Amino acid sequence: MLSDLVTTKSLALVALIAFTGFVLIGAFYTPDKPSELKFDKESWTVYNDGEGTYPYRERMLSDWVKHHQLTGLTYEQLVDSIGEPSNYGQDDDTIIQYLIFEGFESDIDPVHGKTLDLTLGPDSVVTAYKVTEW
Q1: Phi/psi of residue 82, each to 5°?
Q2: Which 3-state string (H, E, C) describes 15-63?
Q3: Which residue has the higher pLDDT, 18 or 73?
Q4: Which of 22, 113, 121, 126 could be a cystine partner for 102, CB 3.0 to 4.6 Å?
Q5: Biggest alpha carbon distance in the chain?
Q6: Phi, psi at residue 11, to the nearest 5°?
Q7: pLDDT mean over 59-64
């Protein structure tokens, strides 16, 4: 009878420890793919100067592309909506780019990244867009 009580208490303690462990893991677990965020211009334009990144763009990109009309916007409307473009080294003024992220390894040259590329027609109206990963 006493051994049954000790076994029951031991099992309850083990269950409590396991449950607490799962709760803590769930609270601090960060999946590889960050969760999506609803687009808002203020967060989209935040730039982390110390890291050289836009910390929210990747998480907002899907919402922006799915729930906002990109084609048909004028250049001015686009800039009012999401800020000035990045356009890293583009000679072609019919393509504008917004840097989503750049990944670095051991030096200053990026090794991979993602951009939102928009094509402007003759009236400076967005005619097409694509997300480019490199």
Answers
A1: -130, 10
A2: HHHHHHHHHHHHHHCCCCCCCCCCCCHHHHCCCECCCCECCCHHHHHHH
A3: 73
A4: 113
A5: 88
A6: -65, -40
A7: 94
The model carries a pTM of 0.69
* HSE, side-chain direction, 13 A CA sphere, residue 73: 18
Residues composing the chain: 134
Rounded CA-CA distance 92/100 in Å is 20
Of 1 and 86, the one with more pLDDT: 86
Q: In what order do the strands lie in the sheet with 126-133?
A: 95-104, 110-120, 126-133
pLDDT over 50 (residue 27): no
Taking only the tens place, the pLDDT of each residue in 82-124 is 999 988 556 777 899 999 988 887 877 777 889 999 999 989 9
Q: Please give the helix or strand (H or E) that residue 4 lies within, else none.
A: helix 2-28
Contact 46, 54 (CB under 8 A): yes
Closest CA to 96 of 67, 123, 128, 66: 128
Q: How far is CA 116 from CA 23, 38, 123, in A?
A: 37, 17, 20
